[in-house]
Write a structure and sequence with these properties.
Six copies of one chain form a homohexamer. Helices cover 65% and strands 0% of the residues of chain A. By secondary structure, chain A is mainly α. The longest helix of chain A has 23 residues, at 98-120. Chains A and B meet through helix 2, helix 3, helix 4, helix 5 and helix 6 of A and helix 2, helix 3, helix 4, helix 5 and helix 6 of B.
Chain lengths: 131, 131, 131, 131, 131, 131
């Protein structure tokens, strides 16, 4: 077997349980996603990743649903199947409607298309966009 | 020389000029970006790409700045330098503040990190996320 | 059916069998991975790819486990599921412990994050790093 | 300085010169591209890469220009600026006209767009396409 | 459930049915792929994407099989599993033989390898390739 | 101008200076790379990213040079020019010789090649590698 299996709450160390507890409290849910159960094999990475995500994805100048849609746009571009599934769900929970998802997808598709057109045509950066 | 140079307005065919005119009218600007001047070597692709972008990037359920930020998130993930430069400018024009940009970047960075963590740990899609 | 199925040893041509034999002898194993059984549809590519991998992955200035971890880092970044599964197994066989895997993953995640931060902030290459 | 500079013919070892000579003879040219002059820092990789490319890019069932266009499509998708510049030139030398380039670019753009649409909509593989 | 299910013909709106009908007529087939059934959740994107693909993938200066092979090369590089499965089938239908597929794969593999060699060795673009 | 310029030490807030000081002390250097000077526009991201990198890149089960080579392998695969330049320098500083770099590059190139071969041939994950 190549991969490490998920670590369930009852089998977790106190250090890992503390992170699981904070995830469930912050997200107002009684379950832990497989992503965290996998990272639990490395409690240091589990803690750091959760702390970073908690800080970054909190309501800020950008609201929760906008942040989740940006997260999803990146995951789609990277073809990360797990991330697409979990962040589509997260974006919906944060308020993304079917209409918003449809517009997000149209923009993501167009951006991926024009990214390749710009590189293939070797377009020079316009003077006014230069750093 | 490997690439095709930009086609300026004065050298453009009537078909290309019509697209240039629509771009400048829609965007309320007097200049054309190098991207369009490169695509002008293929008037069919120029027209189709502009029509698609015009339709997709118009105010909809998502507002203009949200769409531009999603566009930028994709371009950053793809490491498309031209697109990053031009869509950072477009997002700013549509209202992206420094604070919004900073939050966008934090989300894009985190998404790229966790995309690789999810794939490397070979995380199974949770039952509740399955299609 | 879109893909070509695996070619088993008993069904393989002498040319393909010779490569299979060398793989099993070099790797001290009695089985052939699906990757090689798929490439066997093109004996020229099978031979060339195996010869290249055999040459490249041999103990050198870098030891076997370091090479396998680098291979894995690339495969994770590319979201290649087959390669992640097979090279995680190969890295473990070459001596990668759970602790080494955890550190590898932390570095891969951080690199993917900062790669997008560097591009999104359009960071200029420092003078001292210039070619 | 982070990168290794190019190794010119007059400074090259006999082993490297032998590869340079074969490149110039095969390609009917009197100059060596910077790509090979960089790889020359590792004569083993230089030789193996050149042998592989010579074998793969030779006229076969697919003609030279088709192969160069496929090479270019990959390079554009990967946003590899050096490769885009050099393989656009190589494809033109092999016979790619402006009209062929325009059609190539339209296909590459569309493929990159629909790749992200397929992943974002989490489309299931149709039964008839299953391996 | 994270993703939207496929919309079958009998459940589709007249607008969507019109696109389905045109797809089946153009492709001379009685069935619709899951890709279109997913896009049908956004009839505007369905129509625009189909119109673009119909225009781009039609016989032109490049023939149908060359275009499908370029499409496949991009999809492989992006690791888009759905697209690889469906466009391998499409390329075969357009005339790609096993020998052509084998040569395509060799070129795609080599391009991905040298793309990373060129970036890792930080190769400068040759003067004669400069825009 | 699309991007934010670098924030120099003398223009930095006390919060940013504290991070700069820690970077210079940890790395035993008197200068700050452009990457950090760009992130300084968002002191929260600057601090979090530096803390994470400091923790992750410290000598652990894997030594410093191995970690830097893994970082470089990811950056090359992502075609992130800034990251390639800066982490090649960092890897050299940590002890990467020309011979180690050459072997690293050979592995990175081969991994990128076989990643695309595995996806293009639609290779099924071997039973023994399944999670």
């Amino acid at each position: 077997m190549a991969a490490l299996g998920p670590i369930e709450y009852q089998d977790a160390s106190p250090e890992v349980r503390a992170v699981y507890d904070d995830i469930m409290a912050t997200r107002k849910t009684g379950s832990i996603n497989n992503f965290w159960k996998a990272l639990a094999h490395d409690p240091v990475t589990l803690r750091r990743t959760w702390q970073s995500i908690k800080e970054i994805m909190a309501e800020g100048t950008l609201d929760r649903v906008t942040k989740e849609m940006i997260y999803l746009a990146v995951s789609i571009t990277n073809q990360c199947n797990y991330c697409i599934a979990s962040h589509t769900a997260a974006a919906r929970k944060a308020g993304m409607s079917n209409a918003m998802f449809a517009e997000l997808m149209a923009v993501v598709g167009m951006a991926n298309e024009t990214n390749s057109l710009a590189s293939g045509y070797q377009v020079e950066v316009d003077e006014q966009f230069k750093v």
